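for ur thesis appendix - Puff II/9-2 protein. copy paste whatever u need, i formatted it the way the template wanted (i think)
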Amino acid sequence: MKQFIVLTVVLLAIQELQGGSVVTVDDKCTCKDTLNTLTKGQLIDRLVLCNQRNDNLEKIIDGLKKENNILRKENDGLRAENCQLSEALKREKEARQKAEKALKECQKNTENLKETIEQLKKELAEAQKALEKCKKELADCKKENAKLLNKIEELNCTITQLQEKLERCRGRERDLQCQLDECKKKLNICNNELIACRKQQEELRCKIERLNTEIEKLRKQNAACEKDLNTLRCETSEFLAIATQRQSQLTSIIQRAEGESSAIKASYIGFRNSHDLTCAPCAGPA
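the 3d part is after this line
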């Protein structure tokens, strides 16, 4: 009966070792009868053998329990690591959403800046056209001024010649006056010559007055032209200052936009390079 109990314990140990599969001793099994037929020495030998097997099984069971404990600890560690990775993934997703939102805002700002730049380019082109027109008008005014100066110079030369001629006529008149006493006999001829000289003098005087009037008129025109030229120079200087300021502002805006775009691009590239954006379910980039 004791041998039967030992055998039952051994079978139960084997059952636990095999993963809980049910092993029972049937009432109709002939093992009991076989054990009853064995001698006492044979039963002792078999019991010793069973005890050895039982010890071996206990060692195996202890080893499996240790491995089970190790696996359980590893499982707990993996669970904790999984929780940490889940939290990290959640934070990374939130950071990525913020980065994408910032990128969209930056792109929108970039588009606005591009529109502003295009508008400024159009205004700059119009300003350059206006500047070219002002330069052309200034050049035309300078040419007209040069023509007027040349004409004034020519008129001055003509006046000088007429004045010299007038002086000669006056000298001749004086000579005639001096010779008048001596030339009483030639009085009629001298009077005619005198009348002719006076007439010529009057014509020259009228001509000189007309020339003086024309010179004065030309001087007034020249003064008006100089005034317009100075006004045009002032307007050109103000326009150049405004154009230079706008060009400087445009250059500053372009450089700042390029700097911000480069910084955001570098930040986005650094973010992608320093963070694992792989999505676990699809094994692709998030």
